[in-house]
C-alpha cells in the first residue's frame, strides 16, 4: 500500500489553488471583455441601423429622415432583419472573445454554446437587405373608352352649346300670344260646352 507523502499532497493542493486562481483571473478578464461587447447592423442603403448590447438586447434604432416615405411594414421588417444580424454578429464576437481569453476551457465553451443557441444563423433573406421600398401609390384610373362622334359619355355634360354659338343666358322664354284663330276656337269650345250643360248632356 502506497504511503501518502504529506509534503507532496501540500504541493499538489498549492498547484491546484494556483490553477484555480489563474482560471478565475482569466474568467474575470472574460467577463470584463464580454460586458464591453456590442454589435450594430445597418440596412444596405444605410437608412436603418440597429444596435444590441453584450446580452443581445436591443439598445438603439436609428432611422434616417428618408424612411418617412417608406411603407411602415417594410421599415418594421428591416428593423427585425438588422436586429437578427446584429445578434448573430454578437454571437461571433463572444465565441472569439472566449477562445482568446480562456481557450478551450469547458466553462468558456458552455458560454459560447449558450449564445449560439440564443442567436442562430440568420436566414438568407436577412443577409441581403431590401429596405428601399417605394411608397404605395393609388391604383391608376383606366382610360375612358372612345365615343362616337355626336355622342356623349354619361359623365360628360351636354349643356355645352354647339361650336360658334354663344349661350344666350339673358333670354327669357314666355308663352306665345294666342292669335285670332286660337281665340275663336276657344270661344266656340266654351259656348258648345255651356250649351251641352244647359241641355242636360
UniProtKB/TrEMBL annotation:
<dbReference type="InterPro" id="IPR004401">
    <property type="entry name" value="YbaB/EbfC"/>
</dbReference>
<feature type="region of interest" description="Disordered">
    <location>
        <begin position="123"/>
        <end position="186"/>
    </location>
</feature>
<dbReference type="InterPro" id="IPR036894">
    <property type="entry name" value="YbaB-like_sf"/>
</dbReference>
<dbReference type="Pfam" id="PF02575">
    <property type="entry name" value="YbaB_DNA_bd"/>
</dbReference>
<protein>
    <submittedName>
        <fullName>YbaB/EbfC family nucleoid-associated protein</fullName>
    </submittedName>
</protein>
<feature type="compositionally biased region" description="Pro residues">
    <location>
        <begin position="135"/>
        <end position="146"/>
    </location>
</feature>
<feature type="compositionally biased region" description="Basic and acidic residues">
    <location>
        <begin position="165"/>
        <end position="174"/>
    </location>
</feature>
Amino acid at each position: 500500500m502506497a504511503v501518502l507523502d504529506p509534503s507532496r499532497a501540500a504541493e499538489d493542493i498549492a498547484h491546484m489553488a494556483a490553477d484555480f486562481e489563474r482560471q478565475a483571473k482569466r474568467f474575470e478578464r472574460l467577463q470584463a471583455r464580454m460586458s464591453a461587447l456590442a454589435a450594430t447592423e445597418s440596412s444596405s442603403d444605410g437608412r436603418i441601423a440597429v444596435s444590441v448590447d453584450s446580452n443581445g438586447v436591443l439598445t438603439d434604432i436609428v432611422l434616417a429622415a428618408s424612411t418617412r416615405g417608406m411603407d411602415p411594414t417594410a421599415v418594421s421588417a428591416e428593423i427585425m432583419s438588422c436586429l437578427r444580424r446584429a445578434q448573430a454578429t454578437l454571437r461571433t464576437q463572444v465565441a472569439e472573445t472566449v477562445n482568446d481569453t480562456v481557450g478551450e476551457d469547458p466553462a468558456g465553451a458552455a458560454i459560447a454554446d449558450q449564445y449560439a443557441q440564443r442567436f442562430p444563423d440568420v436566414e438568407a433573406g436577412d443577409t441581403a437587405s431590401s429596405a428601399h421600398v417605394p411608397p404605395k401609390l393609388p391604383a391608376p384610373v383606366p382610360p375612358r373608352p372612345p365615343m362616337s362622334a355626336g355622342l356623349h359619355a354619361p359623365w360628360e355634360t351636354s349643356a355645352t352649346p354647339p361650336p360658334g354659338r354663344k349661350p344666350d343666358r339673358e333670354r327669357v322664354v314666355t308663352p306665345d300670344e294666342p292669335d285670332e284663330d286660337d281665340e275663336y276656337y276657344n270661344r266656340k269650345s266654351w259656348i258648345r260646352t255651356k250649351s251641352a250643360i244647359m241641355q242636360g248632356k
